[in-house]
Amino acid sequence: MTIIGSEAREAVLLGEFRRRLDDLKVNGLYREFIAGAHRADDRGQTQYGDRRLQVWCSNDYLGLSQHPEVILAQIESTFRHGTGNGGSRNIAGTSASHVELEERLAAWHGKERALIFSSGYVANFESLSTMISAVPDTVVFSDALNHRSLIEGISRTGCRKHVFRHNDVDALESDLAQYPIEQPKIIVFETVYSMDGDVAPLSAFLDLAERYNALTFVDETHAIGVRGPTGGGLSEELGDHRATFIQGVFGKAIGTVGGYVAGPDSALDYVRSFAPGFIFTTALPQAGVDATLKGLELVQRDGELRVALDSGTRYTKNALRAAGIEFIDADSHLVPVMVPGAERVRRVARHLLDDFGIYVQPINFPSVPRGTERFRVTVAPYRTREQIDYFVQALSACLADA
């Protein structure tokens, strides 16, 4: 048997990393990161070297990350409480603000308890993996286009699962019907899907959950803040609050960072007590939580932000349509502009950046299937009609050159 020295083993390992990265580059799938500095004094702009760029792909749907009241809330709290909480939630990391935020989130969604996490990804992964593992014979029914955080949380448990056709009520019912009524079940889906901008048949799925005695875990990430009378998501918009669990995030429409799950007290108390990613990680700083509380207040009280978001989105879609630019006209604030081809979408993005001062991130495989590459465009409330017209004209020119 040949014994390989440590240096040789390291060379083999690093060589494999390089080979795989080279494959990404050859196939046009290597991810490049634009190192910009967002400008609170000129919202929707980022400083890129000595240039200012317009950002047209931000998840900051309402522009609250640069809202003066949210900024002030974080600054004032930082002066009072410092920059960190000094430990995990169970070791000196729980502040009065953490408790208040969880209580307000639970009340917002009409649930018994809410639990906040360091991100939406962690909220999904830790909650699902912990709860499903607690009941080993649980069968999971997962939408085919669910986010990776949901997929990983389910897969981590090794449970029996069915991946049903996207938004297909009949396919879900066919899968559910295979099991006795007493079999533990949970249906996992999103309300707004970010890549196509389409919306789930929420009430129809909840009807099936009642009929087949299943729990439901509903990811409202892209609906929180932008759907419903107070921004409570699609559930609030439809007045249908039957979902067992609601998941949401702060890093999109609320403008800060973190995620949460709201639902029954016993289930989330179990997650609080057993989820490693909750127990063994540093708590969100109180200053950030206070900023989130302010962002949540603005989302709940200021429906004009949602009106402006909807108005700008409609205007953008009409401008794209008039310019003959292909996009998915879904029922949401997300505007997927189709630019098929991994190399082509990268060329168009670079052209927009270099020649027009516009930043949009190419979306390609594995986020979307090959041949359906796109830009996922968002139109925050602060966008002017002149800026939208400029964006569409620039995009049209770049597509023609590509």
TrEMBL record:
InterPro entries: 4pyrrol_synth_NH2levulA_synth, Aminotransferase_I/II_large, AON_synthase_class-II, PyrdxlP-dep_Trfase, PyrdxlP-dep_Trfase_major, PyrdxlP-dep_Trfase_small. GO terms for biological process: tetrapyrrole biosynthetic process. Its EC number is 2.3.1.47. Keywords: Acyltransferase, Transferase. Its cofactor is pyridoxal 5'-phosphate. It comes from the Bacteria. It catalyses: 6-carboxyhexanoyl-[ACP] + L-alanine + H(+) = (8S)-8-amino-7-oxononanoate + holo-[ACP] + CO2. The keyword Transferase applies. It is an enzyme of class 2 (transferase). Belongs to the class-II pyridoxal-phosphate-dependent aminotransferase family. This is 8-amino-7-oxononanoate synthase. It comes from Streptomyces tuirus.
